[in-house]
Fold:
Amino acid sequence: MGKEKQAGELVQGTLDMLILKTLTRGPMHGYGIASVIQQVSDEVLRVEEGSLYPALHRLELDGIIDSEWGVSSNNRRAKYYKLTALGRKQFVKEASNWSRLAQAIARVMEMA
Amino acid sequence: MKRFWKKLRRRRQLDRDLEHELRFHLEMRAEETGDAREARRRLGNVTALKEACREMWAFAALESWWMDIRYAMRTLAKNRGVTVVAVVALGLGIGVNTAVFTIVRGALSFDPGIDHADRVVLVSATDALAQDELSRSDPDLRTFRSQVKSLISLSAYRFTPVNWSDESGLPERYVCVQMSSTGFAIIGRQPILGRNFGPDDERPDATAVVVLTHRLWQDRYGKDPSILGKTIRVDEVPRVVIGVMPAGARFPEDTDLWIPLVQGRADSHDPSLFGRLADGVTLAAARNEMDTIARRQVNKTRDTLKGPVMDVSPVLEMYGAYAMRPFLVVVLCAVGFVLLIACANVANLLLARAAVRSREISIRIAIGAGRTRIVRQLLVESAVLSFGGGLAGWLLALGGLRWFDASMARFPKPAWFDLSMNTRMFVYLAAISIGTGFLFGLAPALQLAKVDVSNAIKNGGHGAAGGTRGRRLSSMLVVFEVTLCVVLLVGAGLMIRSAIKVYGTPIGVNTANVIAMRIDLPEAKYPRPDDEISFHKRLKTRIESLPGVEASAVTSNLPIWGQLDFTFELEGAPPADKGRLPSVGGLVVSRDYFRVMQVRPRRGRLFTDSDEVKGSPAVIVNEAFATKFWQGGEPIGKHIRIARHGTPQSWLTIVGVIPDIHQDFRDPLAHDPLIYLSYAREPQRSTFLVSRTRVPPTTLVKAFRREVQSLDENLPVYDVRSLEDHIARHHLDIGIFVALFSIFAAIALLLASVGLYAVVAHSVSQRTREIGLRMAVGGTARDIAQLVFAQGLRQVVIGLIIGLIVAFGVTRVLRALLVGVSPSDPVTFLAVVLVLMLAGVLGCAIPARRAIRVDPVVALRCD
Structure:
């Protein structure tokens, strides 16, 4: 299935960080997380919806996020994910790593 | 970790949650976009996604194995025909392998019950002359013992079977070993009761003693410790029991008891020597040293010995079934072939089914199953099959071993021969079951995993995985099966031809309704020849008065059980050097021996009452003897004389010529010259009592024993069997090998035929449309049949040719087992070709019939 890389496809490993960032705004269900990432990035970042759920389950198993069933805004049962204490620490670390990396890349790109 | 276990318990809950979560997602998306299909498209492959989540849960691995197993069982249950054939094929392969492995391991499990058995060696002179000189110059081994450096200890032993009698039961014949007291130091094990004998017990004036093996102590005395100090009559010599050795000690082989080798007493034959190699000394070094010492020793008296005088060999190679090792390896290879054929067979069945299943597999891949997952699933199926095969094989092996044991029960089995199904056997069973699972499962699995998804779904399974590559693979498997089958058939054919030669060659006597048993008269009670003669006379009278007994006689040897050796002289022949008189085989028989064996003289007469007196000069010869020395002339009335220890005895007169009776121990086809002397002239200590009966001979065993013991209550009667059983026992090895090879070959032929049938039948069903088309355009039934036969028989012919070449190369390893048949015997090879072609034609005939009956209309319409 080697298709070409399209604009907006997520860089490997960044999905976790985006999920964590989204969850810093409060508990959210899977659909919500996907929507938020899309909206906030002005539809540029299109989350491969299929890969979101395995990622959520993995983060949950790793103890970075936790889940509980709640009721959604339109009165439906939904699974809400939220950051754990460990998740918050993890996010801070990844966020600072990311900004350093992003700045570094930006500087390299501006050089030319 | 706690979280993990919590989740494990909530397995179903998790599944439901995921389902719910995804549905929620889809619904929300559908509401937003107003398009349910678009929502599904954006979510992607739900099955793959769920699978990915499940695998995320740590226990998923375990879970999916269990699912695979359940799925495999369902699939196998649905294809009952294939499953049954596969399990039967595997069961046969695994079963005979396990049984044969157990037997071979049992045969090779010889353990003399000594410490460092692998370092213990036997020392012997390489020829009789050297032996003679050695024992004359050093009867007590003193020189040897003091000079040898490469052996830790040197001791002597000699087999002397003995009569054993006491109050605790019937007298018995036991295997006794006379041994110097130093021997126990080499054996290394301490008695569990009492003591071993020491140097004092070896003096001629010492009290006679005996040390028991654990087996004798257990079997005869029920492990009664009060046996110590009791007196037993051993060959009518009272001996005091001084010790019992631990279980397993049976040096050198299957010994029942040990007695001291008394110093300085001359005996009929010289003892063998044994010792343990000193640390770091090699066999070659020891051989060298022994040779040097022996040569020095011998040279004092004679200096004509050339070449090595002494031989040193490991005890493990001299006893047990070591000599059989090459044949046992051959048997293991042969039975391995059977397993390979079974594997190829099952692989072929699975390949055929793979073609049919390619559609199912394609669909599974299309809806998100990974290819590794598919391969795994298929391998699990193979594993379940081989588990079934292993189970069937285990039952078959149990049955086979029981049958083997039962059919061998007539013949005494050495104590070290262990036929029990032990752990090692189970490990072997498990190993070959798992191994075969991979062997036959891997090819079809890989084949299927490579399936071209869209093509397979479109074509409905036709020509996808079962394409040219698959067909070629299955053809190759059939060729492989046929090849191995040919090799086994040739092996079996050669063995069967040998057996026909062996059993088909008349022995020269009527073996039906003859009972034979052995009696040994101990010197201590029957010191003079007259004692022996009168005992047998009285016994004959008693035996012949039993109802059902026609005639009774004594002989030194049974037919085919060997002969005595005599040096002799013909009257009128040029005088030979005293040491170089010709030797001839001979038997010592009492008057009615030929009557019991139902042998009529060709010329002259048999022994009569007049020959029953001491010093009777009558001698009978066989035809081979008459032909050799008189070439058709008249032998009756000619004179010969035998020499004892080089001294010629008085002249004998030939009174009769009898037809040849087989005596040769090794070559059942040999016709050797033989002479027959009257028992009254040459009485023997060790004899067979043979009687012709009017009733089934074994019904008289008790009566015979009673009669013997009423004459001498301490005299054991042993090896009591019908003459037919004695002969069967002599042919036991060839009998076993023929049985094994025939079983292997029969299974191989069956499997190969079924394999061929399956492949041809499958190919016919795959080509139904093509056949229909051919018929529609005017192909006759004959054309169609030709098509099927040509395809099937091609594989048979290729396999046959390769197999014959291989067989031609490997059958020479059987040479030593074959009797009167060359390893490249054309009759056998031709028979194998015929049998295999017949099987090939049969294997093709049924599918061909089906092909002819194809209805073109139906065939062309089918999907």
Notes: The radius of gyration of chain B is 37 Å. DSSP finds 27 helices and 24 strands in chain B. The CA atoms of residues 602 and 658 of chain B lie 5 Å apart. Chain B has four domains: 2-58, 117-319, 325-504+732-861, 522-714.
